[in-house]
Specification:
Strand order of the largest sheet: 8-9-7-10-11-12
Helix content: 40-55%
Mean pLDDT: 89
Shape: globular
Radius of gyration: 22 Å
CATH class of the largest domain: Alpha Beta
CATH superfamily of the largest domain: Nucleotide cyclase, GGDEF domain
Distance between the termini: 38 Å
Low-confidence stretches: none
Amino acid sequence: MPIYMDFHDLPEINIEDSQKAHLKDLSVQEKYQVRYLQYWINEQDGKAYCLIEGPNKEACEATHLEANGITACNLVEVKGGMYDLFLGDNQKIDHGLVRHFNGDIDNGYRFIVSLELQKPQNIPVSIYKRKSKLDELRSDCIGIVEKYHGRDINQTDENKIIGIFRTPEAALNCGLDLRSKISRISKSLKLDALNFKMGICVGQPVTAHQGFFEEAMNFSRLLCDISGDSEITVSRFFCQLSNLDAKLVKKSIFRIIETPDGDFLKSLGSLVEKMLHKEELSVDFLGRELGISRAKLYRKTKYLTGDSPNHFIRNQRLNKGMMLLKEGNLNISEVAIDIGFNNPSYFSKCFQNRFGMTPSKVR
């Protein structure tokens, strides 16, 4: 049967009450042919998440409603191996409550590191050693993720890595280690064009409007995308949880996105992602949906991303186009249409301006 996870926003939640609620779910679950498997509690932030096996969403919701008289803020299906990737190892189950092996309660938060390697486009064939070393770099970076007990999510783009970590300290130290590794390779090979961008954020399993770690994954990618060369951009929440040293911020190693700005970026990114293929995606549309004036939208987008709203939309479309091309399921014209370019030739021109290559060279 499918596996689902729900999300509850419960400001007054505590461990004792959550245990009682779980027992009530167990007492009626057979009636609806579901099994309440595990649950995560975050007392500090007033959040709870339940992992449920059931025939459909309606059966899971009905169990909660009869047992505890409540409905979840959101309930989503967890597909494939995503549960194991984010949550399913190094855990101790205490009558349904998930704890770490040291006995601490697992609050469900995971820490996402998105890395983009910006390799030189052209390396002289005669300098084979450099090319060989660059080909090894991605594997070395994945090794660093694993060194800090992180898990790499396989990407179709060989220049991108996304690591999932259980603690903020592991994510932070991994980010610094990755930065040092890339810097050493760049200096040893005398490749000034070898840079990186990185984004780090905190993610919860399910949010009120998005699926399993979907918001966190999208936000970490966006933080990576708006980073400068050799810069690590982090959310304020991650900064607080990881006790990020202010000295590192002053050295311009890190850029911190404040919480209101992070919320704006999440809303902006979500809207653009949802509407990429639609002709009506425009600056005026974004302003209306976000409830701000055209001028304020321009100022905030330019300040946070370095791009005007129009350029931000175009770049997000091109990023998606690169991903689709590397997946190889669509031809160039189909990709262009799928991301909102009605003219494949114009798509190819914009693509080359952004990535330094034509779409035909991606494969």
